[in-house]
Amino acid sequence: MATRSELGRAFWYLAITTTVPIMAFLGYVLGKEYGKEMIGALLGTLLGTFLVWFDILRAEKLMLKKKAKR
């Protein structure tokens, strides 16, 4: 039986892998409203990639570190 932390980690990996395609699709849909589907998909993909990097760096505690109290 998987522990709670293992299930949480699996869900995190699932969320990370779907971020870029979801953002690309949302960018396409928004771009379609303005007649610029490809630009919208590109911007969505770039935003999704940025969000993935931000989430990975935050999870590895390389960003948003709290300063240690002395």
Descriptive account of the structure:
With 70 residues, this protein is mainly alpha-helical. It has a domain at 12-59. It has helices spanning 4-33, 37-59. Helix 1 (4-33) runs antiparallel to helix 2. The longest helix has 30 residues, at 4-33. The protein is flat.
Overall, the morphology is: flat
Q: Are there runs of 5+ residues with pLDDT below 50, and where?
A: none
Query: Strand share of the residues?
Result: under 5%
Biggest β-sheet strands, sense, barrel: none
Distance between the termini: 41 Å
Number of helices: 2
Helix proportion range? over 70%
Rounded Rg: 16 Å
Total strands: 0
Structural class: mainly alpha
Task: Please render the helix and strand layout as text.
Layout: H1 4-33, H2 37-59
Helix pairs in contact: 1-2
Question: Gist?
Answer:
The chain has 70 residues and is an all-alpha fold. The protein has helices at 4-33, 37-59.
What labels describe this entry?
70 residues; flat; mainly alpha; single chain; 2 helices
